[in-house]
Amino acid sequence: MSKGYLVVESKVNDPVAYEEYKRLAQIAIAAHGGRYLVRGGAVDVLEGPWTAPQRLVIVEFDSVEHAKKFYDSPEYRAARAARKDAADMNMLVVEGLPI
After folding, report:
1. What is the third-level CATH fold of 2-98?
2. Which strand ranges, in their side-by-side order, compose the sheet holding 2-12?
3. Contact in structure between 37 and 8 (CB atoms under 8 Å)
4. How far apart are CA 1 and CA 34, in angstroms?
5. Of the candidates 94, 76, 98, 97, which has an alpha carbon nearest to the alpha carbon of residue 22?
6. What is the 3-state secondary structure (H, E, C) of the chain?
7. What pLDDT, in 10s, does the model give residues 3-19?
8. For the segment 22-69, what is each residue's pLDDT rounded down to a tens digit?
9. Would you list the domain boundaries of the chain?
10. Contacts of 10 (CB under 8 A, 6+ apart)
11. Bridge pairing between strands 87-98 and 2-12
């Protein structure tokens, strides 16, 4: 089975409200076996026309299916509701290499 990686690009509009989203998201991620690999560290573009995101987050799950269950969970729906006006996000899930 392959791991699933949630990749998130975030533009924070309201830092105070975003803190509540982060708190709730962290609880949801832990409840679904996720593990943060990258959480808002410095980004340097090395090649190509990329625009470095304001905030980049990568979360590892046991599989793509686990990542999707996390995303659709009641815990993460609550986090998304808290984030409504706090940030604009692009999010995808990608399948890792077979283990």
Report:
1. Alpha-Beta Plaits (3.30.70)
2. 35-39, 55-61, 2-12, 87-98
3. no
4. 16
5. 76
6. CEEEEEEEEEEECCHHHHHHHHHHHHHHHHHCCCEEEEECCCCCCCCCCCCCCCEEEEEEECCHHHHHHHHHCHHHHHHHHHHCCCEEEEEEEEEEEEC
7. 999 999 999 999 999 99
8. 999 999 999 999 999 999 999 999 999 999 999 999 999 999 999 999
9. 2-98
10. 53, 54, 55, 56, 57, 87, 88, 89
11. antiparallel
Residue at token pair 């995101």: 53
The single residue listed with the structure tokens 């995303």 is 71
Token pair 């304001």 is found at: 54
The residue behind tokens 């090649």 is: 47
